[in-house]
Amino acid sequence: MATFLATYDFLIVSMVLAAVLALTLYLPLMAGQLSVASPGFYALGGYVAAILSTKVFHPPAGLYPVSLVLVEMAVAAVLSGILGIAVGLPALRLRGIFLALATIAFVQILGVVALNLDVTGGAIGIFGIPQPFSSQMQYMWLALPLLLVSMVFVARLERTRTGRALIALREDEVAAAAMGVSPTYYKVLAFTASAVLAGAVGAVSAHFINTWNSRQGTFDTSVNLMAFVLVGGSRTFVGPVLGGLVLTALPEALRGIAGVGGLPPWFAAFLRDGRLIIFGLLIAIGTVFFPQGLITPDLLRRLGRGRRTPGA
Amino acid sequence: MTGTLLLQQVLNGLAIGSVYAIFALGYTLIFSVLRIINFTHGAIFTLGAYAAYALTGSQFGINGLLAGATFPIRLPFVVALIGGSIVAAVCGVVVERLAFRPLRARGADPLLSLVSSLGVAVALVNIAQYLFGAEPYSYPDPLAGYPSAINFGSANQPILVRTVQVVIFVVSMVMLALLTYLMNRTRTGKALRAVAEDLTTSSLLGIDTDRLILLTFVISGFLGGVTGTLIGLSVGIAGPYFGIAFGLKGLAVIVLGGLGDIPGAVVGGLVIGLAESFVPAHYIAYREAVPFALLFVVLLVRPQGLLGRAQVQKV
Question: What Å distances lie between residue A58 and A51, A54, B256, CA to CA?
């Protein structure tokens, strides 16, 4: 077990962070809005942490204080939230494909800006972001609470007035508006909550991967997040979380399977090098055959019932 | 800015803009018929460029599965361009069958086909990487022996345009003329316009809509392959991912022109080409953001595009 954790520490923390990021795509989707803007806020959060920890704060020698990481997360979350409101207010008048396109453009613009500013380190980015922990596994002290808190938040949200308003907007915006649900207010609320969370994840990730540049939080990330949510399930928060965990582990798992003896060499080579081909096909097959994703509220209800009355 | 420099930038802008235009027409044709955005268009662009590279008889690099392989015959560039575009058209058909038809048969949400096409795009790009490796390639220069630039000005006031830009512009215009002829002067074109107007009604009137949808994907794939090869000729194939960035730029073009609007896509392409070529040298690093900034602004101010009519949300 100890060697397993030591070998896969990076992967395990990445899985947890990916699950949180998947929730940032899920939040606006609860209101029926496909926004892929959260990689942009994730990138912003990372830059905030990278700049604060390397240029602004001058911590004593030794491990970087965790309290400062928490401060960075808070700053990143607030800045992302402000940008979220500023972008969300005009952009969320758009629907469907237009919103998706506008948010793609937003991520692209942020990427170009990050590539060209001095404060973000240009194309090289920011190196040597200080480490608050002596081992990568200890990042779980930040990543796991972040995941649990956001899961509880979204789970509670699904059962509150706000959450029901979001779901009403997803099912029928015109009818919901007629019932007194303000579409703009709730859409911007969900969008901003997503931005805040993505900013906080970015701040942790910047420390975790030790370097931050314009290749973080790009359109690639958007595609991955869509895969997490749509393959995992877009109708309950359990879907994105499991999708993020499993699909992040998938490439490593395929590499592991390729290492098992007895496979034809071409197949083993394909599993190793063609991982992303399989990933892409999974997204396509998932959306074609499981349009609501693998985990649906129905499935969860059936599982729940099975547990309470065994044998039924 | 002096007059000659201005004119030179206009010519450069028109050349790149004409490629954007025919690339964006690939998106537009499919959108006009199916109301969906085919995210594989950028990947098909890449595959077309690689196929044309192979057909010129050039050798593949050292990293992919096809490392060191060469196509047995060395075809002239023009034939390779057409051949590569045919390969791209075939990819378009595969994409239609894999990512779009199953969802259409169920009448699924258009956003789902957006995601399934993204999945196929990821798969295609990585198939390209698996086969050809990640290294950049450049075509054997078909213009070797010609001057590298043409002077459109006078001897003492030169307006120099790279020959390759001129070739690109001419090929784009030929494609545009062929497409205009097809859409406006043939029975098939009439049927295509009818299907774009109303899919259900035209199928009731006896138009084989499935066949026409397939044809749309063939034309769109072909246009994608042509642009991939032209851009590859101009700046080289940068690697399997080079179509993705270009594909996203194409989205800016179609939004600018109005989704599904054919003349709009041409205008949008030219506008973005010109806008890019007029970015001041001091801010040249921000050029890549220009199409997306335009996309964002147009979506907020005029979501129906420059030429489009406003659409009324019906209940």
Answer: 11, 8, 47
Assess contact for B213 and B195: CB atoms under 8 A: yes
pLDDT-derived band of residue B143, with 50, 70 and 90 as boundaries? Answer: confident
Q: Do A115 and B292 touch (CB under 8 A)?
A: no
Mean pLDDT of A14-21: 95
Token pair, residue B67, equals 């490392």
Cβ partners under 8 Å of residue A218, min gap 6: A39, A43, A107, A111
Query: Which DSSP letter does residue B96 get?
Result: I
φ, ψ for residue B150, nearest 5 deg? -115, 140
* pLDDT mean over B277-289: 85
Q: What is the pLDDT of residues A240-269, one digit of tens each?
A: 999 999 989 888 888 888 877 777 888 888
Whether residue A310 is predicted with pLDDT greater than 60 in this model: the reply is: no
Q: Which of A109, A174, A219 to mutate to test the interface with B (most CBs of B within 10 A)?
A: A109
pTM for this model (two decimals): 0.89
Residue B38 distance to chain A (closest CA, Å): 11
pLDDT of residue A307: 59
As given in the structure block, the two tokens for residue A95 are 């629907």
- CB-nearest partner of A284 from B99, B127, B295: B99
Report the length, in residues, of chain B.
315
Instruction: Indicate if ipTM > 0.90.
Output: no
> Taking the domains of chain B in order of start, what are their residue ranges?
3-301
Fold designation for B3-301: ABC transporter involved in vitamin B12 uptake, BtuC (1.10.3470)
CB contact, 8 Å: B170 with chain A?
Answer: no
Domains of chain A from N-terminus onward: 9-308 (1.10.3470)
Number of alpha carbons in the 13 Å side-chain half-sphere of residue A236: 12
DSSP string over B155-184: SSS--EEEHHHHHHHHHHHHHHHHHHHHHH
- Dihedral sign, CA of A60, A199, A8, A223? negative
Report which residue type is found at A204: V
Interchain pair B295, A174: CB under 8 A: no
Give ∠ CA A109-B24-B180 in degrees, rounded to 5. Answer: 155
Cβ atoms of A218 and A111 within 8 Å: the answer is yes
Residue of A nearest to B254 (CA): A101
pLDDT at A131 over 70: yes
- B166: Cα separation from own chain's centroid: 18
